[in-house]
Short-chain fatty acyl-CoA regulator family protein (Novosphingobium pokkalii), 468 residues
Amino acid sequence: MARPSAPSRPLYLGPRIKRLRRELGLTQQAMAEDLAVSPSYIALIERNQRPLTADLLLRLAATYRLDMADLAAQDRDDHARRLAEALRDPLFAEIDLPALEVADLATSFPGMTEALLRLHGAYARANQALAEGREAQAATPATDPAGEARRFLAARQHWFAALETRAEALSTEIDSAGGSAEWLRRNGLRVRAMPASVMMGALARYDRHNEQLLLDECLGPQRRAWQIGLHIAYTSLRPDIAAIVRGESFASATAAQLVRRALAELGAAALLMPYDRFARAAQALGHDPQALADLFGVEWQHAALRLATLNKPGHEGVPFFLVELDGAGNVVRRMDGAGFPFAAQGGGCPLWSLHQAFARPGEALTQWLELPHGERFFSMARTVDLASGAGLPPVRRALALVCPADQAPRLAAARGLDPQGAIATPIGVTCRLCQRPECAVRAQPPLGRDILPDDYRRAAVPFVFSEA
């Protein structure tokens, strides 16, 4: 680990130190004990009322195993550059802003600098949307990092051979060691269950200083296994994940971070459900997410995630589309596949049982679907309850796995059913794109259709369209 050289001038890195402390899951008291200083001194540093000394910088690097040789300078210079670019906006044309003052602001007040940059970024995006006549959020990569990340993953069908290969090798090592917790112990890391008061709202926390992985003691076996798998993915699979992210130029750091998070989840799934073994089990069990979850000791949503990523060339599984919604209908996760269309904006079709799952929690809902152009699909939907920290409300989501109708006979949930003879529910992608006239649950008229007045006749359906 490179040792940082003594800085030539005082370093005021309060926001960065505070962010580092929170990333490590430490209180000011705990960090102060680790660094042999007082909690009040840590508080003063975080508020930029005291500079970060060279000695304390060295202790930070040694205690938390960080390479901070030029971290402060890079952060300061990047803030100064970004702030200077923002201040070149014509909005500030009549204000005298000497370069030295800009640099001093970025150096001495990084928190204020970051606040100004966020505010200017929001202003610029709003101006761009107005200039282009859009009321909805712009769908460019720079303003839609989630969409950019999703497109990156979809283009590769959520398949990353190097990540899968490394995860499978690690899975073999873990099985030989007698489980992930024992494998971690042999590699110098203890796994400990801790009360919520220690976890401070986290489900899992890696204590690098004491080389231990702390888990919320309320986590059940499946959730504990998933958190351990994620930790191994973020640490032992870090080089593989970093290589994939470095190989792409993302429009924003947020998009890159979302891809990194998705890759860690894919890595954890590959560790807990090795590809070949899982694919064979899926075939034998009729791609039943619950049966697979029970077999591999994971939760329903993790088995569903793995089913949607069986895209190894030459050994593909059933092509699935996966979507996850919250109670308000917001799309939390979407994994494109199976040729199933999904609207970029606007709600989905309420006739799809996915939207009814919240009224029937824990129940598996199956349904045949038919889109306006005749494409038919088979859907499996249900709710899942996610782990949440102490004192936080429970989190419930609805997930659906959807495959083309001709693949449905491979599923246990559809065995014995005739895909051609089954009665399918006619649904649309979204009301604005669905031209079906006799829909009683329609919320909006479709694009390009005029509606008839209802002065004298009010139909049972919300809108009656003109023939033109």
Observations:
- The longest strand covers residues 376-386.
